[in-house]
Design goal:
This protein has 253 residues and is of the alpha+beta class. Helix content is 23%, strand content 26%. The protein has two helices and nine strands, in the order αββαβββββββ.
Length: 253
Amino acid sequence: MNRHPSSGTSRSSAFTLIEVMVAVLILGMVLASLYGTWRIILTSTEAALRITARAQRARMATATVEQALLSAMLSQNNIKLYSFFGGNNGNFSDISFVAALGDSFPGGGIFGEERVRRVEFSVQPGDRSGNDLVLRQHSIFDLPEQASNPYPIVLAHDVTVFQFDYWDNRQRKFIDEWTGGHTNELPQVVRLTMGFGSVGRFAQRPAEIITRVIRVPATAIPGNLQPGRGAPGGGVPAPGAPGSIPRPLPRGK
């Protein structure tokens, strides 16, 4: 007697093509979700690192400008060598003055013991997109129009605002330039505004703004008493006078 398989026999346990396709689709959706999450985390991390680096640069640049202004000096002797100049060009100012700088000031090793030197801050187009804040220094015996700017230092990138305002005792208000008859004196108070980055790709507003109000030593120092070396009382004599600081020789000489 022939035995026929029961009609209730269970189906094969193998996956059908439709089931495989559904599984692959679900796996692809999961992987896409994981990849999107990873990209968001990576992008956020890179943005956070950029913001942190920019903030650190901004603090260092601000501290450098503030340190220089707090060390500003003016001698009644050879006043032309010690002139204080502050120009204005829209969002970007430039400033030039003489300061007695310490060893920790950027670039101090280049000038050795010549601590009294002219410093200049200005904004110029950078190698990257955007503008750089640049510090230049040279000997006080080089007149501003003759300086060769041998050692530029980039203090900050992506600078969108760099402005100075100077307190004018005559007008009893802040002015945005220190030129003309003002250059033979020091401003008592300087207000510094620095902006970095921008909000959005085409926005005009900086992403970060730093403002400092700096009180500058405002009394001109007699030539025989100004800080330095080689003259009675530690002063810096006029160029060529006995005890004057010799001008540094160019490198290689």
